[in-house]
Structure to design on (365 residues):
């Protein structure tokens, strides 16, 4: 296991650990347009920076599915103002963008897609991450999922020398402004991380410990939400945030399975939230995994505390993805993601023909 992130948790953990922010003299804050402000996280961070005498610049141009070009522009701006540290505040999009911006800022002469080459520079600015959603676990792993301009395709930037945060701060208050719908979608994303990590051929006892902890807590929330789940409870918010982080730690060791690349098409092309897009495939995902290793799937169901058939029903139902795709769209979607490494990260490796089958059974005309 390698995860060099120093994670600080609890209510008020930003101000309680103010000394951790003294890793530079000019901080570049990477956020979306609203969430970091609405939840109070940005205000808390700025208060700490001012008290320490650290200059800061706010870059609030990050939208969902962050574009590589927007990250590159952020890196140019960070270099221009002389930033020597990056603080990502937000959901997965802002945190992933912060990782890319830290690399671009340290290498301002680098062209955007040079990040995708093997001979890219190894330097990056130090990173601090503060999640405002309980969904991605990006604070605990090196993955930055970027959208390639003009390609309608996602690409993962990861480098152990560049993309791990130095510190992460988990304060459940920062997730309290999320709507019910978005909270459930984030929980679906985090659950997918846990379940897909548990079933990965790369998993070990340590990764499965984190995956099982997260999957059980997240599934209980997802299943029982309409039966009285209370997202106004700070205790619930904290449980979800820590479970999401556990999923991030688990996929740090294993990566994810095939619901992720198949779901990326629904997110990029049809605007389906990422967590729901992954969850839509879960009956097929678990059915195929059972073909490869039924005993391992039963161990996952036991760890979650629910029958496999129940999980295969509840996760797609809560995802509630209702689309119709024609044969041409399905063929294009499969072609876009057929080379993803996630397929080998499952007990059963699906073929392109089976990808077509899955899309057709779920969304065919």
């Amino acid at each position: 296991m390698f995860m060099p992130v120093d994670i600080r948790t609890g209510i008020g953990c930003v101000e309680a650990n103010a000394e951790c922010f003294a890793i530079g003299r000019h901080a570049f804050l990477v956020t979306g347009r609203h969430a970091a402000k609405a939840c109070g996280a940005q205000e808390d961070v700025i208060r700490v920076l001012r008290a320490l005498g650290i200059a800061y610049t706010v870059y609030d141009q990050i939208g969902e599915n962050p574009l590589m070009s927007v990250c590159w522009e952020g890196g140019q701006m960070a270099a221009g103002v002389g930033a020597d540290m990056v603080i990502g505040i937000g959901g997965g999009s802002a945190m992933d963008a912060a990782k890319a911006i830290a690399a671009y800022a340290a290498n301002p002469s680098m062209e955007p897609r040079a990040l995708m080459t093997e001979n890219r520079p190894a330097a990056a600015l130090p990173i601090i991450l503060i999640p405002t959603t309980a969904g991605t676990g990006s604070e605990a792993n090196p993955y930055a999922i970027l959208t390639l301009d003009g390609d309608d395709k996602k690409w993962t930037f990861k480098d152990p020398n560049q993309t791990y945060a130095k510190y992460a701060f988990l304060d459940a208050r920062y997730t309290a402004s999320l709507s019910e719908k978005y909270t459930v979608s984030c929980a679906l994303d985090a659950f997918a991380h846990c379940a897909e990590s548990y079933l990965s051929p790369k998993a070990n006892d340590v990764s499965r410990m984190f995956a099982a902890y997260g999957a059980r807590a997240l599934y209980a929330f997802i299943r029982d939400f309409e039966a009285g789940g209370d997202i106004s409870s700070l205790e619930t918010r904290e449980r979800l945030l820590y479970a999401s982080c556990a999923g991030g730690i688990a996929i740090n060791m294993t990566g994810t399975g095939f619901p992720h690349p198949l779901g990326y098409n629904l997110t990029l092309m049809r605007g389906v939230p990422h967590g729901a897009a992954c969850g839509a495939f879960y009956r097929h995902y678990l059915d195929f995994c059972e073909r490869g290793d039924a005993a391992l799937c039963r161990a996952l169901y036991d760890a979650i505390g629910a029958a496999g058939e129940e999980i295969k029903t509840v996760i797609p139902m809560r995802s509630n993805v209702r689309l119709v795709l024609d044969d041409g769209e399905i063929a294009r979607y499969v072609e876009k993601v057929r080379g993803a490494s996630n397929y080998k990260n499952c007990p059963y490796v699906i073929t392109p023909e089976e990808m077509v089958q899955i899309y057709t059974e779920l969304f065919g005309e």
